[in-house]
Amino acid sequence: PFLLIGEGTSEIQKTIISRGLLREYRARS
Q1: Per-residue pLDDT tens for 1-29?
Q2: Exposed (0-12), middle (13-18) or buried (19+): which is 20, by Cβ within 10 Å?
Q3: For the chain, first and last CA: distance in Å?
Q4: H/E/C letters for each residue in the chain?
Q5: What is the C-alpha to C-alpha distance for residues 6 and 22, in angstroms, rounded to an integer?
Q6: Reported pTM
Q7: CA separation for the pair 29, 13 (Å, rounded)
């Protein structure tokens, strides 16, 4: 997801990162 930083797609970037964080959070819980 961090590779999209230079692509200028901040919205899509945040969406992908947020999904990844949610998956990790759910997996840990």
Answers
A1: 556 556 667 788 889 999 999 999 899 88
A2: exposed
A3: 23
A4: CHHHHHHCCHHHHHHHHHHHHHHHHHHHC
A5: 23
A6: 0.49
A7: 24
